[in-house]
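Appendix C. Worked example: Prokaryotic-type class I peptide chain release factors domain-containing protein
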Amino acid sequence: MSMRAFPCHHTCRTALLYLTTAARRHFASRKGGINTIQTGQWDDADLHSAREWLANFNANSIPRGLCAISFSRSSGPGGQNVNKVNSKATLRIPLSSLLPLVPPILHQNLRVSRYLAERADALVIQSDEARKQSANVEACYEKLYKLVEESARAVIPGETSDDQKNRVKNL
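Step 2, the predicted output written as structure tokens:
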């Protein structure tokens, strides 16, 4: 990061650099940029059902009928096609529709997702990676699937093996 980005007195530069470094450390220490919550508030039955849900979760687990898709013009270079064709896809899914489909242990992580539109209380995911609408729609659904899966893997702890339990007990 260039120091020219901070037009201030030279004595402030080290403080600003420290704050920038501290902020970087904070975000780097977060797993995948997703806030994790304490798993101590969930009992074994909740965690077991969440693990089962995660084992059965796939890209088709979220019904496509819950999502609203809209199209707009893509940005960036693209020649003659970019200004004429609405190829950018925007997927919008209300949290009120998504949260009943996932275990309660995931709700907090989805509420702090980078895709959250707070005023609409919905997840808004966009894709303009491809030139085709259909490819961008599929990319949006893939991003939604990855968001839910990464949130689940971040907060649902793995099952402790019997060997590990015995080792801890013998300590």
